[in-house]
Amino acid sequence: MDIYCHDGPFVVDEVFLSWSGVKQVCSVYISGGQNFALFQNTSFDSNDQQDNSTRLAVDGRKSFSDPCFTGLPTVGDQTWTLTFAVHKIVNEIIIHRKLRGDGYTFMNGFYVMGYNEEGKLLFRYNDTGTSKGSLTIWILTEVSAPMKKIVIAMDNASETRYLELCEVETFG
Q1: DSSP-assigned beta bridge partners for residue 49
Q2: Which of 9, 64, 134, 157 has the maximal Cβ count within 10 Å?
Q3: What range defines the domain where residue 139 resides?
Q4: What CATH number does residue 92 fall under?
Q5: With the C-alpha atoms ordered 121, 122, 128, 133, is the resulting torsion angle positive or negative?
Q6: Is 59 part of a structural domain of the chain?
Q7: Is 122 part of a structural domain of the chain?
Q8: Predicted TM-score (pTM) of this structure
Q9: Which of 72, 94, 84, 51 lies closest to 150 in space, CA to CA?
Q10: Around Cβ 82, how many Cβ atoms within 10 Å?
């Protein structure tokens, strides 16, 4: 559940959750709404491309069309990297993918990894293809350790399967 308030700053003193059916709650994440990824350092590597348009994925625009970061539709491995200036505790990553005219998105089979300052892997999310029809993907990291770097990657990219990121958001 995401609740957005655009009427100005205010303080929430209490949140009451009520539902039926589920007998227990494992986790509740409450965020002040600050997107840690906004305007942070990014880079992209593939077998044959170095690209400066990587910042389009952290420019604050959530449209599902251009301008978006797009990896070249070539065969090989592709890696888009977000590096925080200061490490952050990231609980949620939101990826906004690009809408195609035929409704098809190209990122099936991507994966996301989070690393600490020493380069230790803190979490890994593997896309199983179930998000194929969704333009927005919410990933809960379930990590309480500070992250320095987030990597979104795809092995064996091709002309019909490559990275396209309209916006990447991170929240703690």
Answers
A1: none
A2: 157
A3: 41-171
A4: 2.60.120.260
A5: negative
A6: yes
A7: yes
A8: 0.77
A9: 84
A10: 26
